[in-house]
Amino acid sequence: MILNRDLLIGILLALLVAGAVGGFNYWKKYEEKRLDRLAEMVYLYEKGELKREEVEQKVKGTPYYPYFLAITSGETSQMLDSVEDPDVKKLFIEKASFLLYSKKKYEEALGKLSHIGKEDFNYPSATLLRAFIYEAKGDKEGALKLYKELIKDYPDTYFARISRAQLYSLEGN
């Protein structure tokens, strides 16, 4: 009798574990399909097939929301608030700075860029943007310093090549 009860408990536990694993896998697949549908909605919005309002409601609170904000109207404060990953946040800080630079709000752009340091993956591109801002402000020396830094610290990169071209252009004038 004891052997049968132990066997029954063992079978019950095995079924419980199998049910939990199956439930977890089902939830994971469901979540993947949901995110795929959201990604498709964002894609259709970019193609002009869906309206902003209907997509924004669906993607709010998902990993696609910061990207959606970035491609819509450049709502940088909302965009930055919705990003949790520190590396991704640095990328959006750079985008927000570029939008400010485009609107000739140079000091604000430089203020935001001050949050990106040498340890950040996008330091070279943020530094290039800083140099462009200095150049636009008429601070030739500040721009030259940053272009030279990029050439020295990141040789044989896109950023060094752009910097070299800008350096020649500035020094030639």
Automatic annotation (TrEMBL):
Gene3D superfamilies cross-referenced by the UniProt entry: Tetratricopeptide repeat domain (1.25.40.10)
Organism superkingdom: Bacteria
A Pfam family assignment: TPR_6
Full protein name: Putative negative regulator of RcsB-dependent stress response
Source organism per UniProt: Hydrogenivirga caldilitoris
